[in-house]
Backbone:
């Protein structure tokens, strides 16, 4: 098929179009990556096995869970901090695990934030014993309050694309011996349903059969069933978005409140957009990236937002990228027209980039791998299920990705609370954020 000839005709037609015709073709995805449904795995009671057994399974597939800790039960803080450093969400499950949270909505958030650092602190909560506490105290401190099965409260177990009707009553389906989800098929059936309905489902797990569960004795789940579910999700990654509760909640709230609008200009080889919302609370900054597609006739594009170069992909007449609300103008450029020589200069010479690594090594000692702290903030870096090197909380910082030869394969700027910064061939990479670096393996 003569694709090239076809797109030349299409570009010629595009020259007659105005900026507005492009604009009408910009769309915010229902779910990250234009997937069809979303699923969140949540874990209660801070079981030791969640650190030693569950986290490695999630990391193996590149997925992240939500772990609800009981402050007074003194969980493995350093183990859970290590998971936060790797992109998992740590959340509250109260101080004392009393009914109706015993008024501990605000104090448990503060206490757990004293032990765990992560982006925006503790922003979601799961209620002990499934009892809904003071809803306004919940919503003043958290973006999500999680109940147990929705059907136990006359609601449905899975949610629509807009999340729960009340964010203080976000449902999650109980798994394990006392729950309705036991096998891999039980989990995948739920995920298949939300792929069909474009909805969101959350799961609620405690400890695991045959593992060390501490206080998390209720309704142990077969970890192998969860691993099977994650394997299915990875095989169907284009359809199902698996992400922590806080991330999905931010995405929904931002998507419902955001507009993508064209800017004047209409330069022949540039499209400019603003992506904005006006959500404001004291809990989160709501800068989770939203997935966008823009109709284009160009075969090769470069997308930037502010100082950041965004990962993008052209497919079927659209350019796809993730942009951050309220983070500056989005510029989509025709890369063929703007920089015809760019393809030959994609990689700088090895000598210059390896000297950059050597420099930072000699001035500050060996590159510190897996160091979360930077200027008092928390940064996480990991490879996600789609093979993207992903960073959290690097807003405004310089980001450089090196391949195993020490060549620079990406430079960009941190934007938003989470960012896909690079996808490439399998192998080891070093991602440098500010003066810290992480060694990551794209498998
Ligand atoms: Zn509990």
Residues:
């Amino acid at each position: 098929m003569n694709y090239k000839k076809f797109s030349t005709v299409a570009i010629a037609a595009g020259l007659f179009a105005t900026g507005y015709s492009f604009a009408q073709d910009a769309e915010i995805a229902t779910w990250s990556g234009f997937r069809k449904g979303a699923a969140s795995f949540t874990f209660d009671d801070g079981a030791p096995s969640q650190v030693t057994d569950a986290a490695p399974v999630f990391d193996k597939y590149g997925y992240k869970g939500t772990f609800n800790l009981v402050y007074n039960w003194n969980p493995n803080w350093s183990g859970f901090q290590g998971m936060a450093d790797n992109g998992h969400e740590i959340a509250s499950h109260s101080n004392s695990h009393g009914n109706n949270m015993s008024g501990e909505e605000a104090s448990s958030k503060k206490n757990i934030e004293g032990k765990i650092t992560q982006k925006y602190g503790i922003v979601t909560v799961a209620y002990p014993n499934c009892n809904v506490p003071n809803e306004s105290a919940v919503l003043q401190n958290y973006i999500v309050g999680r109940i147990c099965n929705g059907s136990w409260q006359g609601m449905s177990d899975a949610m629509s694309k807009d999340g729960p009707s009340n964010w203080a009553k976000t449902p999650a389906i109980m798994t394990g011996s006392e729950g309705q989800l036991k096998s891999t098929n039980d989990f995948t059936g739920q995920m298949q349903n939300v792929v069909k309905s474009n909805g969101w489902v959350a799961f609620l797990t405690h400890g695991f059969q045959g593992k060390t569960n501490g206080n998390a004795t209720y309704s142990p789940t077969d970890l192998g069933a969860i691993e099977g579910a994650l394997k299915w999700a990875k095989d169907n990654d284009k359809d199902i978005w698996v992400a922590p509760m806080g991330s999905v909640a931010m995405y929904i709230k931002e998507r419902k409140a955001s507009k993508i609008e064209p800017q004047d200009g209409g330069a022949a080889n540039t499209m400019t957009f603003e992506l904005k919302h006006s959500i404001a609370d004291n809990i989160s900054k709501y800068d989770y990236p939203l997935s966008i597609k823009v109709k284009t006739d160009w075969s090769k594009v470069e997308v930037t937002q502010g100082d950041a170069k965004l990962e993008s992909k052209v497919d079927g007449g659209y350019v796809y990228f993730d942009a951050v609300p309220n983070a500056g103008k989005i510029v989509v450029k025709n890369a063929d027209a703007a920089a015809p020589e760019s393809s030959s200069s994609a990689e700088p010479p090895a000598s210059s980039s390896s000297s950059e690594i050597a420099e930072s090594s000699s001035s500050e000692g060996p590159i510190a791998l897996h160091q979360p702290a930077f200027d008092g903030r928390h940064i996480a870096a990991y490879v996600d299920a789609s093979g993207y090197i992903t960073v959290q909380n690097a807003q405004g910082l310089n980001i450089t990705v090196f391949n195993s030869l020490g060549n620079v394969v990406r430079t960009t700027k941190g934007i938003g609370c989470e960012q896909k910064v690079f996808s490439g061939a399998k192998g080891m990479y070093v991602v440098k954020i500010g003066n810290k670096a992480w060694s990551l393996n794209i498998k």
Notes: The first helix runs from residue 3 to 14. The radius of gyration is 23 Å. Residues 44-45, 93, 97, 128 surround zinc ion (CB under 6 Å). Confidence is low (pLDDT under 50) at residues 1-23, 340-374.
